[in-house]
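[step 3/7] inverse_fold.run input=structure_tokens len=73
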């Protein structure tokens, strides 16, 4: 699997204390939601992020995926 860039949107505005929970991802708080962005090297890394979201009880609103360097979905 090639590396992919992800935009993962969750319900709620996550504060700085969540930044350490998602080391490989950047947090972009917005109005009523937060977007986590970053590269996952393989599907295991993506599933790890999604499992962390589940374990924290966060509601997943969407996932967008792009090939690294191509800008394609």
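[step 3/7] decode complete -> sequence:
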């Amino acid at each position: 699997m090639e590396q992919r860039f992800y935009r993962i949107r969750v319900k709620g505005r996550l504060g700085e204390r969540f930044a350490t929970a998602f080391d490989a991802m950047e947090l972009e708080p917005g109005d009523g939601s937060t977007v986590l962005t970053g590269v996952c090297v393989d599907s295991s890394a993506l599933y790890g992020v999604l499992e962390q979201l589940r374990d924290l009880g966060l509601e997943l609103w969407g996932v967008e995926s792009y090939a690294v360097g191509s800008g394609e979905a």
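[step 4/7] annotate
The domain at 4-67 is CATH 3.30.70.980 (Alpha-Beta Plaits).
The first strand starts at residue 4 and ends at 11.
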